[in-house]
Amino acid sequence: MPYVDLYSRDDYASIYYTTSSIYDNVGGFDPEKPTLMILHPVLLDTTWLENQLGDPRLYQHYNIIAFDMRSMGQSNCKPSEKHDAWVDAADLGLCCQMLHLPPCHVFALEAISVNAALRFALLFPEMCLSLALCNIPSPVEPRWTYSALEGFMNSWAFAEDLDGLEHAMSEAMTLLLGQNCDSDLKDLVVAHWEKTLPPTRRQCFVETLGVILNRSPLEPEAYEEITQPVLIIHGERNELSPQKYAETLSKHLKNAGNEPILYPVKGAGSFLSIIPGSASIANQVLVKFLSRLPLSRSDIVPPKRSIYERMKIALDRLAYLVPGKDVNRDLDPTSPLSYSCLSDEVVKLQMDILDRANRGRLSAFNPLGPDGRPLRKLSDSRVDHWFQSGKDGLSVSEGVFVSPERGKSETLKSSRSEREDKTSIKTPIAAKSDKYYVKPSAIREPQPHLNGRALIH
Q1: In a domain, 62, yes or no
Q2: In a domain, 379, yes or no
Q3: How many CB atoms are located within 10 Å of the residue 245 CB?
Q4: Which single residue of 79, 181, 258, 304 has CA 20 to 30 Å from 204?
């Protein structure tokens, strides 16, 4: 995959991307087609966008580009305690300028991508033609999911064996995709996590979860600054992020072009973009929404302003949008970390967590085999265990599991008894007692007697 190097005094990142062109680069874009930027779901990457990149309704009419967000997928970066949604938006702005991308439509999937897309439209309005947002998250993380995600972070990042890691990932799947998630899909997602976010890469995992847990809502005045046309697609049965958050967002976007459109997908939940049926419906709604907008070209030309000048404008605009954001001369406009809006208290907490994750990271448990593939499928593991919950959420074990030492001793005992049964001699009925059999060795043949005297030879 091609990538873009972002480097500055206090930060570096390699942002990988993929496109719909033949040679997987921006130079192969058709200038007659509009450009569509797709942002992948949380904890996944661009390899999970096959339902979008492989849909002829999209790739035949649009030039598609998709980025791996920093700390996810193949992208890598310097671990930072300042990472938030504003930093992701700055990454996208820098990548668009360095690749000389034309203004594009943005299709954002799930929590982190939705927050990054909204901020990208605020900081770089001329680069964003429209917004299509899929599954709107809550403005702040609810307390119950905060506790659950915090528990997953500890049990996942610091797992010491395969059973513990699979248990943490299985519980995360239940939280994100629900109890009725398809077992094959579970196997694929868990295998992907084991390859991209194992305990040996727990700094990336902790940093990504920090972006989710430490998010903060936009100011009401900031929502009014979004003037692009907006489409909101939301799963009707999304238990993690109910539809009320999508309805609230559509009311906040008062100045969006042509009034925001809210489309609920019947029967769909969270992560609907990776489920073929729900993803096809979302793609169809997206195509109809984009067909109503004016056509735009995709000419690859250098931007009129230098990257430093444009990023300085974005930094000044951030100070206007976020009250209390101090933009001083020490901040480097070309550094994405300069756009972070986390408080000092949260930054210190994140620093402590990242330092803890870094200790012993290289010697942490690795769930991959020598060939770089997972050791087993999740469905091949022991499923009838007391901590594996069923579809009803209850964890009840119906089987009896014996420790390896006890099982070995029981096997030896049974094999010894079978061997004795084969070598034993059947005894007469008279030699049997009511309960026990008399051993054949204990029965002696009678000695011949003569008038009470033993016969002497």
Answers
A1: yes
A2: no
A3: 18
A4: 181
> Which of 329, 343, 333 minimizes the C-alpha distance to 123?
333
Q: Give how many domains the chain has, as a whole number.
A: 1
pLDDT tens track for 331-361: 999 999 999 999 999 999 999 999 999 999 9
pLDDT at 180: 80
Q: Which is nearest to 122 in space by CA: 342, 298, 320?
A: 320
Q: Tokens 């060939």 sit at which residue? A: 371
- Concatenate the DSSP letters of all residues of 82-105 into one string: T--HHHHHHHHHHHHHHTTPPPEE
Backbone angles phi, psi at 113, to 5 degrees: -65, -40
> Does residue 385 carry a pLDDT above 50?
yes
Instruction: State the chain's maximal CA–CA distance in angstroms.
Output: 133
CA-CA distance, 378 to 171, in Å (whole number)?
12
Domain coverage including residue 255:
3-143+211-356
Tally the C-alpha atoms within 13 A of residue 251's C-alpha that lie toward its C-beta.
6
Q: Which amino acid is at 44?
A: L
Mean predicted confidence (pLDDT) in 197-207: 94
- The reported pLDDT for the residue numbered 144 is 76
Rounded Cα–Cα distance for residues 259 and 257 (Å): 5
**Residue 395 pLDDT greater than 70, yes or no:** no
Domain of residue 45, CATH code = 3.40.50.1820
Q: Provide the whole-model pTM.
A: 0.83
HSE toward the beta carbon, residue 433, CA cutoff 13 A: 5
pLDDT for residue 455: 36
